[in-house]
Specification:
By secondary structure, the chain is an alpha+beta fold. It is 21% helix and 43% strand. The protein folds into 2 domains: 29 residues; 136 residues, Beta Barrel (Lipocalin), CATH 2.40.128.320. The protein has 2 helices and 10 strands; from the N terminus they run H-E-E-E-E-H-E-E-E-E-E-E. It has an 8-stranded antiparallel β-barrel. The radius of gyration is 20 Å and the shape is globular. The N and C termini lie far apart (52 Å).
Length: 168
């Protein structure tokens, strides 16, 4: 009888240990394609917020059931004088790079969000690294936040906040 009780207790302990993982996975159903609604940077020292890619940014974030992800974002107002990016002036090409971003790889769900394991990126310094994101669902919206980090424009730590709407 004691042996059955010990086995049962061990089984219950195992289920309780796995519960946060499973509950989290069920609560954060991110598989699908998400359209970018807004993306802002908040200076953690001054509190100043700015729209990174303007009022109506373009972009998509996709998570597959197989553990793959991809993200592409850009400002909607990018204009060049040439008929293609390859024929644009060096200044226009630099602007196109600064006003867009893309990366892809695999992902792992965590207790408070997701880690993107980057395999390809517009910024080669991201390749082979991990991008930690805090995430929560709010209706049909996915809100993603970065940890505070040094931004390219401000010497102060910034937090990037992106809001996506599920489209599939």
């Amino acid at each position: 009888m004691k042996r059955i009780s010990l086995i049962l207790s061990s089984f219950v302990a195992l289920l309780l240990a796995l519960a946060p993982c499973c509950a989290w996975s069920e609560n954060l159903d991110i598989v699908g394609t998400w359209k970018l609604i807004s993306i802002t940077a908040r200076d953690e020292t001054t509190g100043k917020e700015s729209n990174i890619y303007g009022e109506n940014p373009l972009g998509f974030l996709t998570y597959t059931a197989g553990g793959r992800m991809s993200a592409v974002m850009a400002a909607a107002d990018r204009k060049i004088s040439a008929d293609s990016a390859g024929r644009a002036t060096p200044e226009e090409q630099a602007m196109l790079f600064r006003r867009s971003f893309a990366y892809a790889g695999s992902y792992t769900l965590t207790e408070d969000g997701v880690i993107h394991h980057v395999e390809v990126a517009a910024d080669p310094t991201w390749i082979g690294g991990d991008q930690r994101r805090f995430a929560r669902l709010q209706g049909n919206r996915l809100i993603i936040l970065t940890p505070p980090h040094k931004g390219p424009v401000s010497p102060n730590p910034v937090v990037i906040s992106a809001v996506f709407e599920r489209i599939e």
